[in-house]
Every structure is written in structure tokens, then in C-alpha cells.
Write a structure and sequence with these properties.
six-stranded mixed β-sheet; mainly beta
Amino acid sequence: MNKATDLSVIAVDPDDVGYNDSSNAHFSAVLDARLSRRSLLRGGAASAAGALFGSLGLAACGGSNSAAAPVAPVAPVPSEKLLGFNAVGKSLLDSVVVPVGYTASAIYALGDPLSGSTAAYKNDGSDSDFENRAGDHHDGMEWFGLDADGKPSAVATQRGLLAVNHEATTDAMLSSFFLHTNGGTTTLPRPAAEVDKETAIHGVSVVEVRKVGDVWKCVQDSAFNRRVTCLSEVEIFGPARGNALLVTKYATNAIKARGTLNNCGTGKTPWGSFLTGEENWNGYFVRNATDDAARGGDKSVAALKRYGRNQGATSRHGWESAGSDDKYARWNISQTGVSIDGSDDYRNEMNTMGYIVEIDAYDKTRLPRKRTALGRFAHESAAFGKVAAGKPLAVYMGDDARNEYIYKWVSAANWDAADANPANRLATGDKYLDSGKLYVARFNADGSGEWLELSIAAPAIAAYAGYKFADQADVVVNARLAADAVGATKMDRPEWCSVNPANGEIYYTLTNNSNRRVEPASGSELAPDSANPRYYIDMKGTVEQKGNPNGHILRMKEAAAGAAATAFSWDVYLFGAESGADAGRVNLSNLTSDQDFSSPDGLVFSPYTGICWIQTDDGAYTDVSNCMMLAALPGQVGDGKKTTLTYPKAAGGTLAVDTYVGKTPDANSLKRFLVGPVGSEITGLCETPDGKAMFINIQHPGETTAQANIGDPSKYTSQWPSNAGYGAGKRPRSATIVITKNDGGRIGS
């Protein structure tokens, strides 16, 4: 594109866009037979009474410091009362609110330097060298301990590495406006200098943190500090390595690719490496309006459509317009070359994105590896099931888009405890993550379910009329199409998943679905089902929000075979809702004002306390409260009851949906722990092994600011964390915070 083109503001959350037009049943049809779903967060006044505002002045990587309270001896574990803190009230304040007795401090924000030669961050749009700075939109995160000598340690509590995802940018129109001096360019072509900044702030960072006295700090000049961006070289592993589907001008042998993109949820392997999920990568690519014909209408057209790139699709940022350099050309996935295999253009470039990527946080000399065997879709987190010697490993994953699926990977190799501390972590990843079986879930209305294998040998896949699969590489690269073929259940945006260390049950957040309807009028709309049972109208001020605006949390229990099981049972642990919503249709979990929430997203079980931490990314309830984090002590699948939801039909009659609702939580098993600043999402969580320091991420504060107001800080909807004394300037910044308990105890007690 050579001429300037005005583009409208992106008003739709890219997570909430669906491309699944298969005829497969939706989880709502399953949950129909089990429950109804939605009213979460609207009870009670926005009060911060009894809460302590986080002291967010601790400098990241060389900034100013804020001392935490002295650490007191911890009480014996048997006398510890989990969830003993007073619940935090809902809040609309531009600050981090935590319970009395806790302190929250920012330590690592957008732009913080990762090398001694990188200048301090000015935060006025003039900064450069983002390849050596913290990226933007901090998301999933994992802890990797270091002993006093800088060696990997599973028990270190005073020093370690944080591997942090940097998902995206705070956008208006095309540009990441807080990143640029004047707010950036909103027409095409985009200036190369702006695009170079924006590509550099995506990806992953690894940063060393240490506890100095009672204060946590980043180590600016640590030899471990590292950035991986969407331009960094990576390796392809698994069935798609060397396959024709991944041939590009950059890598004609299809064994390497460039970068990782839109990194969201995370995972940590039993052998000590970092897993990062590539989520909404498709929107970064552009296709010409005549590309279907250029491709001769071959099967790649069906695959591109299923992954949200019809011909004529525009890109999220216009990076392809910044010049003729190859690093910009790669974002145009149209067939522009004359080769048969795609070795002279980037028609296959999008096939190199959408994977779980393994990174050795301790060793920056090893290239990240894309684990194609785990499937290609909008990945959130990757959660390992309970590990048992002599048994295969299971990895649970979700595809975050409306009406997409839940997946499981089962390794061919059985777990060997000798692999827990290998000399080469990525080689160990080859052993467990390249060979095995990929499954997708089907949920039944009676509370049972099946894992359906995605294999080229499966008759439904081999004979699928919608797409002709060539081999197993084709199956994993086009996992969505393979899941369509076997009849997987469509879900309400599967996001993070986590495994309860107490019993091995798997929890999935299903954030929301605006396309749920009692009587669907289009192919994108779905009736409620047992696993996605709710349809209701939620009011945000005077605006009607229809469908399942508040989301729910699903949990699954594997059959006796454990990781290798192909059958499971399920129920709905919690339904998001306002406390004052109808208990018979919406607030099915009977949430109170100290517990109500909307749009669950991040979900992490602490391996040290067993607490389930629930984080929200909400737009439905933000007139009442900013996004939040709750602490939960859940029970088990089947501890609640069967519920039937009945919906009237316009022409008469009713739709009855059976679902299974978990045991109603009380004040001792679910309560609000934290509320974030204005416009932010709460995401990412990891802890030191003693459970006394918790790191979480505050993503995109102030994202509702209008680009036109970039020159007037008084019009920013958030000024966090600078309004808490952290860093230069007033532009809001995504950041990692550390939470400690003032008496030195474990977080959540």
C-alpha cells in the first residue's frame, strides 16, 4: 500500500472475534443441559475501605526505591489459615488495591532498561533501543530461581529470573500511541521508525530480580537479561519442521522462522524451561483483495479463512507498509511470487505463528523452539497435568476466540525423573513435546466428555470434505480444521487453564461470548448448551450486553488412566456474575459482593499454597469496578448439583438446558484479593518457592485514553504507575508488581 489511508479505530477486542463456522456443537448446547451463565460483578459500592493501596514506587531496573516492612518469622504451616485476609472491595481508583497487611510495589515496567548501556526511560515518546528494554502489555510470567552463584535452583527465594510475555500494544487506530512522541501515525504508509518500535516491544523478556534487604529490584546489567521479539530467529520443531506449509523467503528449508508474536499465557515444564503461547497473531497480517485467485483457489484459501484472514483483510498496525525491507514485507501474506513452493514470498508466513514456544530462560545462546506438535491456534497458557514417573505427560491448552476449542497433548515418552534437571533443557523438550498425540475435547450433556485424537489416521480427518489434509504436519498446522472434522465442542472463549495440585483436576476460564442466543439468527450465534449454558441480558449503564457477558470457569476430571485418558467428567466451578443478579438464571454460583467478578481470564494454582488465583480482563462490569484478582480454595468436580435453565422462545415453548454447578463458595473459599488501576487487565502470576513473594502483571492501564489526548496527561484515564511514584513521565505503562505480606508470611494466608 503506497497511498495514505485513514483507518477507523479498532473497537473490537481481537480475543472476542470468532472464525469458526463449522457445524460442531457449541459448549453452550452442552451446558444448556446443565446450567445458565452470567451475572457477575455488579454488587456493592466501589469501596476501598479496609484495603491498603499498593506502594508502587519501587524502581525497576535502577529507579527509585520503596522499602517493604521487615520480614517476620513465618508461623508453622499447620497453623496457617489460607484466605485469612479481609476481602478487598470493588474499586474505580487509579491504583493497585490489596488487603490490609500487604504491600504491592512496581518493579519492571514498559521501557525499563535491560542493559547497563541503555538509557533510563523518559516515557515521553522519544525513547528508542526497545530491543534492550522491557516490552509492552506484560502478560503471562514464570519464575526461574538462581542460587547465590547464579546457578539454576528450584528452591531459591532471594534471586531469580522472571520470563515475561509482552502481548501487544495500547492502540488507537493503527499506532501504539503512548509509545510515540505525538501519538503516532494513523494513516498508511506507516513510518519505519514507528514500526520498528512497535515490533520490538512484542515478544518475551527475561529479567533478573533480586531481594536486597526487604526490597525486590531488577538487575539492570544482569548477564541473564534478554529480549526475544517478533524478529528474533527461532527454530521449528515437531511434525511441521521442514514441511512445505512453512516454506518462506526467509527460510526456504522451513526449519527456522522469525520471532514470536502476541504472547499471552505461559507454562513451565517439569524440566525447567519456559513455555509461551502465541495468541492473536493473525490480525498482524494483510492479504490482497485478489489473493484467492492468485493462489488458484487452492486449499490454502480455506485454511486462511478458518484462521481469520480472508482476502482483502487489513492488518492491525500496517507494519507491511513501512518500506521494502524484508522485515516489513513479511507481514503481507499474499501470493506475490512465481514459485510453486512459496520460497520467493511470504504466502506461508502466517503458518509460522500460532504455537507454544519453548525458551530456556537460563541460556540465551539457545534459540527458542516452536513446538508444532501441540497444534496451531490462538494459544493461551500451557498447563502440565500431575507428573508421575513412568507415565506420559499431559499438557492442557485453550484456543482463545469465540466458539473455539479445548485441547490436550499427551507425550509418547513416559516421564523420567532424571530429566528434571537436564544439561540441555530444550533437548529434553524435544523428547516430550515433539512426539505424542494431540486431542480436542467434546463435552456431553450428562457431564461426561471425550478427548478426540487429531491424527491423519482418524477417519473423520482423512475424509473431511472441508479441507484435504496431506499429513500430520498439515493436521497440527491446521488444528482448528482438524478439530472441526472430528466434531469438537465450541466453547465460550477458552483462555487460561491450570491444574489443581491437590487432585489433578483441570480448570479453564471461559471468558465470555457475546454471540450466545436462545434462537440463533446467524451462523456465528449459538444456543446455550450444557458446558456453556447461559444466555442473558446484562446492563452496563443503559447499554444492553447480550449473550454470556460475564463468563464462567469450567473444570474437568480425567478418567482412571490419568494423562492418557480419553474420557473425562466435568462441571462449572464458578459462574461470573454481579452479586445482585438473578440467582436462578445468572448468578448461579450465588456470589456475594466480596466475590463477584466478570470475564475470568488468567488462572493459576499456587504449587505452594494450593490457592487458585483468578484474574479478570473485563469490559462488562468496569462501570462498577476495575479488573481484579480473587483467591479461591475450590473443591472437586461433582461437589455441586445439576441445574436446569429454561429459556422462553419467541414463537412459544422453551429451551431447557441442563448443566452442573459447583458447590456454592463461601467467605472462606472465595474472596477478592486485588483490584487494579483504571483500564487495566490483571494477568500473569508466579511466586518464589516459599510463597512469600508473588509477581503479577498490570496490563494496559489507561487503554481507554483517546489518542487525541496524548499531549494532555490530565486527560489520560490512568497515570499508573507514575502516580504511585514509579518512573518518569505520566504516560501509563504496563508493569510487573511484587506483592509481599508485611509480617513476612505467605501470600494468601
